Amino acid sequence: MNEDRRLRADKHPVVWVIAIWLLGVAFLSVLAYPYIIERRFPGPDDVLRLVQVRDLLAGQNWFDLQQYRINPPDGVAMHWSRIVDIPLALSILALQPLVGTAMAEWVVALLLPLLILLAIFMVVSRLAWRLLGRSAAIMSVLVLTLWSSFMMQMQPLRIDHHSWQILSVAIALWAISWRKASSGGVVAGIAMGVGVMVSLEVLPMVAAFGGVLALRWARDYRNRAWLTAYMQALALTMVIAFALTRGLPGSSVYCDTIALPHVGFFVIAALGTGVIAALPKLPLAVLVFLFGIVGALGLGFIALAGPQCFTAPFGVLDPLVNEFWYSNVREGMPIWEQKTDSGLRGAVQMLLGLVTCMLLILRKRDWQRTWWIEHLLLLLVACLAAIATFRSLYFVAVIAAVPIGWAASAAVRMVLEGGTLPKRAGAALLTYYVLLPGGIVTLGATFLGKQDTLVSQESRSGIVELRESTCDLGRSTTGLAALPKATIFAPLDVGPFILLNTPHSVVASGHHRANFAMRDVLAGMMSPPDEARRLVARHKADFVVVCTDIGEPHTLANAGGEQSLAAMLLAGDPPDWLEPVDLDGPEALKVWRVLPY
Asked: Residue 108 in 3-state DSSP?
């Protein structure tokens, strides 16, 4: 093959990419317009992210990740990285003198996710252009624009960390296609180092990139520099990021985020890789044996420094918290726990990515075939990650976009080339299903006339999602600010909005390190009044707040029975130790003062 993917004569279709980005921005803005106008964040995590940034700008210590208004007076140590706080805080500080603090926060929350989307589009399209040409590059970003689970993470106000994880994977994928290991391996290592410091969810992709570069070494000794550069840049990035955002030595014993035992493992792996790379060419069996020793040393360090890191991050949750909170976070559940249409749509998208990648393997030769085999391996790992944790489908999106973009461009070319009417109609249908593979699921459901059988209790009860609630927590909770500064006992999803709009504290929110406080909130809502009062008093709560048209209190009332606190509050029949408080807010937002014993 004479053509080199890195030395193309045509130009990168930057204008087309920007045009499709603007189309995506318009699409997202139209869908989210009511929420943008009403200042409703997509979810509690986005709200609490802004609370964390506010606390930082108000003077909270950089290394202090404690949220003191959750489970006071001790607070709860947040597992979120300061890396995500940095662009938010700097952008708000830059805009403050021009538009004021409140508007600066709003503008940044609106625009930052869209700018990250543009960065991902540029990276993915450049990779597709280098490998497959202009039309594939254009179609690859169009594929992403039509991939709903991906675009959901890019919508305005979505300021939590997921978009940064996606960007890190996209950059690493692009970097390993470069000509030189000295730059490509380093950039991929830095991207994955930052990504995994943001969230452990990136860890499977960290391993996948390492595995692909190890295969390059196994195939050709001269390619050992790729893995060496990647591992050393990865470990160094983690050490620097850990020191700058957590402090050294770092006293955290939590393993739901990168901790010192993890950092130690990657440092040992990087040093071991460097030592092995310095040796003469070795037989494959010896190479595997030496890397096995390095891996064992790294795991041994974790066993000594933090054996708790061998357990699942959510494996220590109280059974009540696991059943009534974590199990209801659908995006964090396996694919078979999703609603039928969502699970099938994700499966079809994954299958399409794998099939188009395999077609490229069959069509290409030499280095191009090798590349697409590597691409397929990365895509397979992303698919396995998505099967285990459904929200990882967005990793599948950025990796699959390139081969699917190639297939879409080929289908469009078939339409434009003409031919017989049946041929053109078939090509048009193929284009539709390549760009919108979920349409197969929709068409099948329509044809069969069947509705989703895996609906939640909330849906069966006619209860709306938090974002659509008439409580309008994004604004109505500001009425709570008129109350004396207090601790509020409220369902988990309500907590972040109270923290955002008032000076009050909450007993718990949906953040797992407050495990025991979360258990007390859930148990309190599900218990008879006397037991509930004991749990409310344990946390010295001054008020009880419930939004009656969201799913959480109804789920707890159904589980606790008619005599549970949640059921009594929803029925408008509170126990005698609660006194109604009229704040002239939405009817669905109920507030009671806790009377003294």
From this structure: helix
